[in-house]
Design a protein that fits this description.
149 residues, mainly alpha, two-stranded antiparallel ribbon, 2 strands
């Protein structure tokens, strides 16, 4: 269970100002997360609203607690993080192409069973869309090419 995040009045004002000044939607999400977390929202609810993987929040909280609110705007990632799914891309693609997958959760479970790789649904949805030209419906997968016709 995650604990509630308590922000001072000064931090609330700073976050409000930073959100208005920030041009990057990616950075705005970091500040919005702090606001939502301080209001007692659950991580999964915040993740659904912001479109961010729940695992990311742990990093953001650690950065906030060690260096403060404004430091969240200074994160500059060098390149992309290595995907734990990358070594299994071919097998995942074959699974998607050859079997009727009813829900994204089914694919998530299969990946864990086959490769012992845990991934959140947000990341898996993005990975499938990026690598397999699939569009994710709320309760499952639908092939993008079939949808367009």
């Amino acid at each position: 269970m995650s604990r509630k995040l308590t922000l001072s009045e000064t931090e609330h004002k700073t976050i409000k100002r930073l959100i208005q000044e920030e041009k990057s939607a990616k950075v705005q999400k970091r500040y919005l997360f702090l606001e939502m977390k301080s209001q007692g929202m659950k991580h999964q609810d915040i993740a659904d609203i912001l479109g961010v993987c729940v695992d990311t929040f742990t990093d953001w909280i650690q950065i906030y607690e060690s260096t403060g609110v404004e430091s969240l705007g200074n994160l500059h990632y060098e390149g992309r993080r290595f995907s734990r799914l990358a070594p299994h891309k071919e097998a995942i693609g074959e699974k998607i192409d050859t079997e009727n997958i009813a829900k994204l959760e089914d694919l998530q479970h299969w990946i864990f069973e086959q490769f012992q790789v845990k991934t959140c649904l947000t990341n898996l949805a993005y990975y499938c869309k990026k690598n397999f030209d699939f569009h994710i419906k709320k309760q499952g997968l639908s092939q993008g090419k079939d949808q367009a016709q």
